[in-house]
Amino acid sequence: MNIVVQKFGGTSVSSVESRNKATNKIIKKYEEGNKIVVVVSAMGRKGDPYATDTLLGLINPKIISNREIDLLISCGEIISAVILANHICERGYEAVVLTGFQAGIITNSNFGNADIIDVNPDRILNYLEENKIVVVAGFQGSNKFGEITTLGRGGSDITAVALGKALNCNYVEIFTDVDGIMTADPNIVPNAKVIKKMCYSEVYQLAEDGAKVIHPRAVEMAQQSNIPLIIKNTYSDSEGTSIEEVNVNFINNRKELFNEKIITAITYKKGRVQFIISLSDDESNVNKLMDEITSNGISLDLINFLVDKKIFTIDENNKDKLISILNKGNFEYKIVENCCKISVIGYKMRGIPGVMARIVKALSKENIKILQTSDSHNTIWCLIKEEDTNKALKALHNEFKLYE
Ligand code: ADP
Ligand code: MG
Hints:
Its EC number is 2.7.2.4. The protein is an alpha/beta fold and 404 residues long. It is built from 12 helices and 18 strands.
């Protein structure tokens, strides 16, 4: 069976007009002789009826448990799925709707942020054999006791790839409101450009470092099972971004597309807090601190451990927890709040001289102070103040001529 999974995000199903566009994409693929599984997000954004944030606004998450919250917010995608199926049926095609649970998606019991542990695709396969278009509510599954769970923000991307994997699909198409993955967030950098081809690791880095165009877990899962991913625009016929494994073909293609450019894209993550902890040479102190940080589930980033100083950043949501750990242990520390982590992502950039120098110069020309840096084989990170974010993104985008 030639199975294609198509995922439509919130804005792609928010209005009659956008749902008609989505339906066109679905019917076109179906008419080309493919079996179609559609995955949908909840309709629209905060304020729109039945959007996830609108539903959350109806309750007080401090007094009701995560299990009940999941029951509530899983409804957004179910409503969206039925309404999109209605559009498909109106056009004379047969569609059937399944919740995540009914589609065979089994998760652990981590309500609100569950991981998919198994998918039983039998029910979907039966419908596909009957030539039905199967519309699945994204972002949700159930634990092994039949309790409804949700997968966290952006979770419909994960649903799409998990189903694609279980169904052994040809590829997964992620439809959204931009023409593909771009060299920077187009809302901030107006001359950002669509990237036609990327490899999984670049997209993973981009997603992990804040570009919300696709969920990092979805990219990781696609890479593990070698499922081609294509990011496309519901509202246009642009080719989009195709994500694949690095091979000879990819490298040749890339040379053509990139003119040997070393940098692919730039992204950012706000809400970071830098901690600078001064320490005497008592190592047991550090070990105790690290144990506390680990047992509190605080994840560290941009880690620089020097003999007398330990520097790292954390998400601002963990700030209060870490401060109380440090105070309890009588540590001496400084914090810098409202930081933003800028990521300059490339392909095999380590070993190419001068990249860091260009980043530093481009930022200093704009009077942007760099608080910390780090690097890997495919990324250079700079920590700056949040208020400098837009300026920094534009300056780096220009410096590496990503608009070309
Ligand atoms: P959906 O609801 O379809 O899942 P999202 O809002 O999750 O859509 O993701 C699409 C958005 O991601 C775009 O509208 C864009 O503003 C944002 N975005 C951030 N960085 C990038 C990037 N590098 N390329 C494309 N889009 C990006
Ligand atoms: Mg999304």
